[in-house]
From TrEMBL, chain A:
It comes from the Bacteria. Its main location: membrane. This is ABC transporter permease. It holds the Pfam family BPD_transp_1.
UniProtKB/TrEMBL annotation, chain B:
This is ABC transporter ATP-binding protein. InterPro entries: AAA+_ATPase, ABC_transporter-like_ATP-bd, ABC_transpr_FbpC, ABC_transpr_MalK/UgpC-like, Mo/tungstate-bd_C_term_dom, NA-bd_OB-fold, OB_MalK-like, P-loop_NTPase. Residues 4-241 form the ABC transporter domain. It comes from the Bacteria.
Amino acid sequence: MNKTADNRAWLLVTPVVLLVAFNALIPLMTVVNYSVQETFGDNTFFWSGVTWFEQVLRDPRFHGALGRQLFFTGTILLIEIPLGVAIALTMPRRGTWVSVCLVLMALPLLIPWNVVGAMWNIMALPDIGLLGHTLNSMGIDYNYTRQPVSAWVTLIAMDVWHWTSLVVLLAYAGLVSIPEAYYQAAKIDGAKPWAVFRYIQLPKMKRVLTIAVLLRFMDSFMIYTEPSVLTGGGPGSSTTLLSIDLVKTALGQFDLGPAAATSLVYFLIVLAVSWIFYTLMMRTEES
Amino acid sequence: MARITLEDLAHTYFDPAEGDVEWAVRRLDLEWADGGAFALLGPSGCGKTTLLNIMSGLLRPTRGRILFDDRDVTGLSPEARNIAQVFQFPVVYDTMSVYDNIAFPLRNRGMAEAEIAPRVAEIAELTELTPMLRQRAAGLTADGKQKISLARGLVRPDVNLVMFDEPLTVIDPHLKWVLRSKLRELHQRVRTTMIYVTHDQTEALTFADQVVVMNAGEVVQIGTPVELFEQPQHTFVGHFIGSPGMNVLPAKIENGTALFGGQPVEVANPVAAAEGVVELGIRPEFVRFAPTGIPATVTNVADAGRYRIIDTESRGHSIKLLVDEGEPIPSGAVNLGFAPGQTRLYRDGWLIGGAGR
């Protein structure tokens, strides 16, 4: 086949180059720019090298936020992935109930994030909220605005409520794509339900579950709106996750340099973990 | 191993209480002898797979019974029937090795590892999987995966029946032939009852001792490949088997003589009179150019290698015949002669005087 070489074709990619430049490259480079400079206001900047990075990486405040972030993400992954798979397994594969179940499952995903935060905030209020009041009248001392444990439980419950659906839908998509012959073969081979799950359903769901874990990792690692509306990072700094901490630094204290450095470290962590995870999953796929 | 009897079997995917429903399997009385190699042949949608799933226990028939020897298994699960099935698309357990795949049915039945190992080794040898036993099953080619499916079926020592549901669909053409003769050879060695479902006549005729031909939910003929070819009991069999299929021509009976277009034709099964739709069946192999006979016009000649397929037209009906390589082909108006011993009369599709209804 003859390939037509015409360098004017590059012009055709200009729109996308511009788009990426404006929505990703330029903002990112602005942050890089801030992260290596010092300013005392009035728009004058001085080169400061990697000072901010050194400061951030040694900062106990950053360590604390990172630790809380890892704990949060780890916990919700441990709950949402198995729970999502379990729910998907119990959903009907055909019939009229399929669409009903799918719509019910999709509902939490359609609610704006700040509304989710506000809903849980009000629902969990210890004096007037349905959840908070019920728990207290049952004799459980629950007050998420004062007790770190209560705040954490509420935060995790909210995220599980909001995002398990995503895992369910992905896992369900994986399940329905398994050809009927696999189940028939398993029946003929005398496989018990656990063996069917372990050797047919789980392996066939692996790809979608990889995507589910990746999405939930990235999303939960960058979560801001819901905890910010629910607890605002409190009580104290007990639920101050990375993004909340970052906003406090950048907009609360207007420390542009440290905030930019934190952003970059934050970004690199998300990127690195996602990449490592994806590579590992795909490598086991190939071998 | 077992003799398998189907008694008054019928199945519909609809609710039979609704009255006039579509039946996937209409009415079936059939016996599969123990240790035989059978083929179930028919066009797509004729009820083959439904019948197969009923025998394996994946489907419960709407009506009728299935007996393994004299035991009624109609309500039993596939596992309890102890049968094996190889599906159209290879089913392997991706995460397991080839060895674990073959051992899977035995492990599910709680057999000890010490017993499993020699059994798997033996079956792997039989199916030529020995060099791949340690590989992951997912990495094998389609024919390798089908061999695993087959091995999983054969590995159980007491399997009653092995069924194949169009197992060569996804196999490359050059491997189809190899695998097909392999199956035949395997049957000779293990002597388990095997039923091979297909819509491909070559596959059916090369694999089976007995071929069951189905059409529209019914069995139209059971016979050896030769019987199906030489004495089709139904015009459908004549047409479906053979390449090209049997010529089927409208006929009339007058005073005990069969007439095609007003011209008498000598047949193997003459009758005094017949009601209903009467047709003549003659295979292209048994039609010849003749000095006198049925007048026809040659319309097309197709070269099929060792012979040529000639299309002719006579009174608006197409008649095909085969002419050997090198034989001259007359052009324009010709006369056709039918071999009398191979020309048969059919009434409403069924051979007159035949074993059909």
